[in-house]
């Protein structure tokens, strides 16, 4: 570019010199009185627009360059801005990821804590229930023991009360129906004036609140048998029931006499039992005989 400019300038100078010379030779319009001066002025005048153009273009070039530089700067700036935006975006993304992680971590921690606390609570609950059950069991055991103790005490008290009642009964004055006398521990009525059949005799005893006599043991039997006349026959309170079994008129069985009657039972069809000559015998008598009643209970006065 520079070489081109220099070349162009030389061309112009050469042209001026030549142009000035020709004018002077032909002696026409242009006569140079002071050739170098005039040519120089001309040249300058001729070159001026060119120079202007040149400086303009130079200015333009400068401004273009400035523009380009500006643009470049702008681009760089923009690039920088873009870069910083990216950086910001990255920071935001990073912070988001971090936040997410934090949230995740805290969530996980929370979930863990909740799970642990739930497990703990459950354990505590299970323990509480177990403790409660154990306690209840113990309480129940204690309760049962207490109840058992109480029942034992009550039973003991009842037994002692019953014993006391019995002794009280025996020592207390009692109301005994007329004609009954105490033989051993029981009251008996020996009836040998008004004779009855077995059924009639039992009926008469019942009217007096008693039954035909039976005996709980040998002593009782002996005591009564010795009290009556040994040659008189008395009805006793035994009979054969519909099944063929000997039973007491009063209902309850007494093993002593039942055994003794069993030993005597040679005639299966005999229906009743009598007392005669200090012994007992089976009989089928249908006629009236003396009889002995016994009181089952004695009423307190
Ligand atoms: C949380 O983190 C766990 C592992 O640490 C991962 O398996 C899970 O996908 C993450 N959850 C979220 C929502 O990022
Ligand atoms: C048993 O008798 C004793 C003494 O009489 C009394 O203190 C106690 O309360 C009685 N027990 C019961 C269970 O009735
Ligand atoms: C009754 O007893 C008397 C005197 O002990 C006796 O002589 C008599 O023979 C007895 N009667 C009978 C039936 O055994
Ligand atoms: C009365 O009993 C006695 C002895 O228990 C006896 O020796 C006597 O023979 C009996 N009398 C009659 C009549 O069965």
UniProtKB/TrEMBL annotation:
State what protein this is by name. C-type lectin domain-containing protein
InterPro entries hit by this protein? C-type_lectin-like, C-type_lectin-like/link_sf, CTDL_fold
- This chain's source organism reads Drosophila yakuba (Fruit fly)
Q: State if Signal is listed as a keyword.
A: yes
Q: Enumerate the spans annotated as C-type lectin domain.
A: 176-294
Query: How far does the signal peptide extend, from start to end residue?
Result: 1-24
Short name of any one Pfam family annotated for the protein = Lectin_C
Does the record's keyword annotation contain Signal?
yes
So which domain of life are we looking at? Eukaryota
Q: Which SMART domains match?
A: CLECT (SM00034)
Q: Keywords on this record?
A: Signal
């Amino acid at each position: 570019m520079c070489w081109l400019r220099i070349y162009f300038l030389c061309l112009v100078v050469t042209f001026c010199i030549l142009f000035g010379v020709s004018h002077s030779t032909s002696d026409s319009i242009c006569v140079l009185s002071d050739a170098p001066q005039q040519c120089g002025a001309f040249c300058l005048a001729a070159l001026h627009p060119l120079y202007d153009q040149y400086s303009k273009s130079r200015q333009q070039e400068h401004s273009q360059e400035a523009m380009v530089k500006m643009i470049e700067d702008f681009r760089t700036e923009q690039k920088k801005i873009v870069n910083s935006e990216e950086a910001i975006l990255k920071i935001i993304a990073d912070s988001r990821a971090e936040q997410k992680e934090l949230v995740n971590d805290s969530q996980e921690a929370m979930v863990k804590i909740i799970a642990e606390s739930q497990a703990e609570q459950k354990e505590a609950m299970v323990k509480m229930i177990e403790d409660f059950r154990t306690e209840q069991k113990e309480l129940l055991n204690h309760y049962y023991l207490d109840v058992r103790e109480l029942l034992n005490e009550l039973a003991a008290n009842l037994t002692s009360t019953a014993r006391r009642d019995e002794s009280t009964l025996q020592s207390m004055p009692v109301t005994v129906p007329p004609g009954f006398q105490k033989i051993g521990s029981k009251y008996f009525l020996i009836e040998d004036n008004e004779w009855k059949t077995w059924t009639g005799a039992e009926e008469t005893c019942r009217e007096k609140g008693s039954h035909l006599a039976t005996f709980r043991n040998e002593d009782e039997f002996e005591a009564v048998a010795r009290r009556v006349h040994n040659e008189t026959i008395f009805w006793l309170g035994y009979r054969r029931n519909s099944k063929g079994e000997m039973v007491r008129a009063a209902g309850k069985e007494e093993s002593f006499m039942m055994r003794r009657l069993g030993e005597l039972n040679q005639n299966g069809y005999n229906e009743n039992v009598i007392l005669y000559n200090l012994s007992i015998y089976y009989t089928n008598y249908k006629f009236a005989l003396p009889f002995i009643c016994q009181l089952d209970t004695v009423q307190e006065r």
